[in-house]
User: What shape does this take?
Amino acid sequence: MRMKRSVAALAFILLAAADVPPPAAPLWNADSIAKLRSWVSAAPDDALSRPDSSALDRAIAAGNPAAIDAAATALALKLARMHLLGAATAGERAGWRIPDSDRSIKVEEQLAVALAAGRIDDFFAGQRPMHPDYAVLRDAWRAETDPVKRRTLARNMERWRWMPLSPGQDYLLVNAAAFEVTRWQGGVRAGTWRVIVGKTSTPTPVFSAMVTGVNINPWWNVPGNIVRESVGGLIRRSPATARARGYVWSGGSVQQKPGPNNALGQMKLVMPNPYSVYLHDTPNRDLFDRDVRAFSHGCVRVGDALGLAESLLAGVKTRPQIDALVASRQSVTVGLARPVPVYIAYFTAGTRADGSLAFYDDIYGRDKRVTALARAGGSECSG
Assistant: This one.
């Protein structure tokens, strides 16, 4: 017995001298593994397929703590990233150009903290999109029995996973499929405006930008395709008529002066982007009474555009001051108190102003791209 104790003591001294750390305690215990399994089983509640847990099963059967830790961690990270970033392929995401800042989130570090604190449930819940629309879609998905509606709900839940986890406290969200723009402040809808979006031949792209100001009485730099399609023909046929409508041209470049005929109306948001797509007013307001409002070359025309400008310029300019600037006919840009993100998105299921669920026509045929989603109870939604 004395010999055995001496050998053990010598081994400890040698290990300490070699600076070899003692074996680490297992990261995952029975309780945390049980909670992980529960979240894996519940993945279809979020229109996600259950990730494969066979590696964890084998590790547990073998009774290997290190293998259990590795398999459980890999499974947890896979599921977390499905909730956080989505499960669609690059082809299914084609055309969605809103950068997802969630890719920079250090999920591994979050998981380690959650395991140490025994807060695995909070870890997984925190990877779901925070926008209230997602919660409405999720509840509807769990209750819906119609397969067509379930596919639509699944696709739009996935689109929310492509958005930043939190889009911010103050932002604009354009839903081209719903023909509306909403302003969100402090997590609640602060205003909704009807919009006109691009025709099916010139669809409004999906992207994000930063609104830094409002251009009152804007000049319109006529895009080349519109010059070719219409304005150029008018200039050639009747230069006098073109001038009367405010067009000026030089060396193939065409602009339109501020005024009642200006295609941008009385205001345009300053939101630099590579697509030359903007939110702006229009002199042709009768089209806002239509249910389907896809008439533009891609830009987003806003009904009650000055009302949107007033909302964005709160604390900078009053409505009477804005109206006075409009009446001056002078082009002037007023900066916002702070930049506001704008997301030009596309959701064929969302919420109305009262928070109730709404479905919208897939005007651009984009839903059919998102097919490999929503495995629930072994049944995959596709098509």
Summary: Residues 1-18, 374-383 have pLDDT under 50 and may be disordered. The first helix runs from residue 2 to 17. The first strand starts at residue 96 and ends at 97. The CA atoms of residues 185 and 238 lie 48 Å apart.
